[in-house]
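Budget justification aside, the reviewers requested a transparent look at the raw inputs and outputs of the sequence design task funded under Objective 1. We therefore reproduce one unedited record. The lines immediately below are the structure tokens for a 717-residue chain.
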């Protein structure tokens, strides 16, 4: 028995809303667009012509398509025919892909998107999903819709422009010297302007035309031939100066497009060539892209902007201005990574905005290391006499104050340095370690008091429990949003060109990320981890994984992406556990004789009678194993990235014959070169690289850990 089914029966149209699930993302899209005030749509009103589609409807269908990782105008048009949620949001209308594409790059859409973000943030505050305590700022680079070989470089244009100026001046002097044209009035003696080049070309035109008329007037062939010969030079000069005019205009236009940048793309003039993390060629290739700046809280994108310059340092102040002007008032804490730490940025936040910057600087983590603090040649570790204003260097010489120095960068910001110079560095036994100054010059210290006080303030803030905890949330707040955008939403590249159009598309993408996360948390309330973020010892990793996979499963991500990612994660975790058990990191810190002593104990556990050979004259063997069979071992304790060459194989092979051994081994904490592996295979030498050594140690399960052998030679014997 089957349920009634008849294709020829008339079915009355029903409200499509009943076909949509209760917590479907279409409702979130509808709600956020409906909160936009009516005044924001005034710019779309037209009194004449055919009535346009309502901007609210257009916003809804584009936002909904972006939440489904559909960015093509034609595919969005296709969804309007197939998707129930799209049909409901469009209420039966079916705009074409041309209409959709024109709308999403419309200048007035920028204001609608801004209102979306403002209203969405207000909704989050009302629902207490964010607490307005801090904003987390970070940047990422997204590839532009431009070919990677369409680059134009500032240096190349400046070089060609200088050559053009030099060549045009030289040729103009030749014209005057040969009396081909009369002298023209010039604005500058250094360079011929575009109008002056055009004027020279016109005068050469007149000269050539005069020759043409004179040639036609002559009857004798010899005279005509002579005139043609004289006409040849003006014609060549005319061709060159016409080319100069075109090139001069092109170079001028190029420099105008550059602005303060060093490159641009011929396809998208607003895109700059930057180094991307996604480097499939693995050669540091530059690609045309944009620097996207984002402010988040609770893993929601609250404000964004697009910049053409690749470094984050110069985008910080304009981005904060952009947030204050169009989005919301800045909270108490402004959190960012070391890429934003600079004197100008600290000054702006502390003095101009009166907020607390939780921003590290480039040397922050390095300065906390024991190696840095114990380095006697770092001026930060020198003794300072506050009364007489001088430092004392490692050689007990006074480094006294000499003068003030001011440096102004190309952006106009001035830094003040106090310059200290050592009394006398000549004959100092520590000179080579202390300074790279030329012979005869003393070591100088450039001390920026303002910068040092800002660094001290940052260290103090990050060491406190409350502010340190806020800064600790940075990685789990802003970084996941970029992950959702690129991996989950699958938005690694823009599909429009031009900075303003890119901003519009990016706004749709970030709002799509917000709505997907908001819907996922609403569907599964257990994922709402904001109440636990401030609790000490909260399991951020577990909550992050839950949020990620919930949003991940809500999208159409293929298994070909999921499985390799999971396999890679499992392998990485397994490798980490192996390293932890084997203590390979302790072996990396050993010296050669310590490594030999460790191998002696290692093989003793296997029942051998190991003997460590003498330091010199060992004939290629570091350890000799005696037991059921005799084995000679050469131990190579190398740096992690230094491979063992085939010389080690040769030496241990010679040792095998010298000691009358049965086998020859080479054991290292690093790896072997291809030639070493080939030679060892041919000669029957056993090689144990880093990975095999780790497994070997774990299998034996030594009672003594490798770190117990990182002592002096006298203590090991």
């Amino acid at each position: 028995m089957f349920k009634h089914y008849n294709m020829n029966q008339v079915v009355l149209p029903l409200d499509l809303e009943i076909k949509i699930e209760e917590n479907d993302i279409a409702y979130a899209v509808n709600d956020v667009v409906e909160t936009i005030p009516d005044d924001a749509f005034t710019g779309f009103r037209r009194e004449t012509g055919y009535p346009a589609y309502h901007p609210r409807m257009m916003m809804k269908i584009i936002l909904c398509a972006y939440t489904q990782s559909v960015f093509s105008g034609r595919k969005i048009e296709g969804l309007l025919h197939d998707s129930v949620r799209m049909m409901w949001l469009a209420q039966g209308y079916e705009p074409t892909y041309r209409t959709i594409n024109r709308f999403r790059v419309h200048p007035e859409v920028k204001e609608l998107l801004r209102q979306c973000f403002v209203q969405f943030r207000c909704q989050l505050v009302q629902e207490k999903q964010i607490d307005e305590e801090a904003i987390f700022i970070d940047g990422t680079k997204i590839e532009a819709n431009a070919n990677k070989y369409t680059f134009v470089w500032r240096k190349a244009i400046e070089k060609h422009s200088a050559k053009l100026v030099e060549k045009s001046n030289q040729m103009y002097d030749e014209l005057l010297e040969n009396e081909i044209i009369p002298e023209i009035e010039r604005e500058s003696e250094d360079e011929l302007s575009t109008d002056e080049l055009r004027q020279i070309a016109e005068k050469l035109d007149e000269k050539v035309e005069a020759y043409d008329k004179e040639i036609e007037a002559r009857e004798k062939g010899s005279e005509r031939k002579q005139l043609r010969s004289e006409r040849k030079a003006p014609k060549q000069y005319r061709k060159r100066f016409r080319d100069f005019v075109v090139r001069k205009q092109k170079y001028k236009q190029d420099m105008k497009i550059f602005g303060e940048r060093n490159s641009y793309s011929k396809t998208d003039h607003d895109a700059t060539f930057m180094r991307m993390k996604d480097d499939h060629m693995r050669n540091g290739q530059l690609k045309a892209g944009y620097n996207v700046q984002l402010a988040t809280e609770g893993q929601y994108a609250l404000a964004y902007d697009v910049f053409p310059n690749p470094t984050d340092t110069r985008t910080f102040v304009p981005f904060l201005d952009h947030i204050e002007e169009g989005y919301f008032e800045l909270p108490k804490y402004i959190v960012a990574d070391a890429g934003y730490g600079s004197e100008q940025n600290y000054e702006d936040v502390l003095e101009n905005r009166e907020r607390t910057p939780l921003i590290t600087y480039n040397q922050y983590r390095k300065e906390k290391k024991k190696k840095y603090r114990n380095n006697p040649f770092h001026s930060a570790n020198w003794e300072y006499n506050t009364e007489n204003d001088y430092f004392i260097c490692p050689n007990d010489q006074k480094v006294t104050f000499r003068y003030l120095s001011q440096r102004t960068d190309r952006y106009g910001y001035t830094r003040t340095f106090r310059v200290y110079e050592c009394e006398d560095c000549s004959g100092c036994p520590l000179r080579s370690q202390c300074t790279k100054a030329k012979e005869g010059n003393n070591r100088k210290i450039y001390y920026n008091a303002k910068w040092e006080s800002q660094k001290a303030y940052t260290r103090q803030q990050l060491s406190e429990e409350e502010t340190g905890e806020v800064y600790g949330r940075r990685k789990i707040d802003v970084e996941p949003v970029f992950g959702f955008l690129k991996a989950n939403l699958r938005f690694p590249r823009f599909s429009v060109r031009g900075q303003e159009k890119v901003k519009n598309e990016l706004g749709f993408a970030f709002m799509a990320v917000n709505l997907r996360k908001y819907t996922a948390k609403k569907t599964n309330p257990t994922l709402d981890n904001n109440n636990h973020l401030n609790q000490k010892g909260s399991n951020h990793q577990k909550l992050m994984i839950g949020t990620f996979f919930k949003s991940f499963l809500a999208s159409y991500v293929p298994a070909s992406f999921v499985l390799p990612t999971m396999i890679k994660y499992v392998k990485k975790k397994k490798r980490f556990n192996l390293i932890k058990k084997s203590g390979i990191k302790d072996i990396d810190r050993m010296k050669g004789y310590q490594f030999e002593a460790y191998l002696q104990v290692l093989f003793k556990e296997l029942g051998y009678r190991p003997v460590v050979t003498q330091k010199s004259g060992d004939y290629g063997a570091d350890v000799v194993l005696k037991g059921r069979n005799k084995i000679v071992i050469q131990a190579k304790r190398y740096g992690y990235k230094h491979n063992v060459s085939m010389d080690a194989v040769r030496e241990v092979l010679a040792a095998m014959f010298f000691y009358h051994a049965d086998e020859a081994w080479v054991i290292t904490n690093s790896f072997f070169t291809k030639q070493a592996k080939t030679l060892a295979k041919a000669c029957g030498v056993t090689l144990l690289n880093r990975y095999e050594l780790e497994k070997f140690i774990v299998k034996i399960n030594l009672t003594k850990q490798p770190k117990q052998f990182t002592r002096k030679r006298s203590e090991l014997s």
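The longest helix spans residues 221-258. Confidence is low (pLDDT under 50) at residues 529-545, 550-561, 713-717. Computational costs for records of this kind are itemized in the attached budget.
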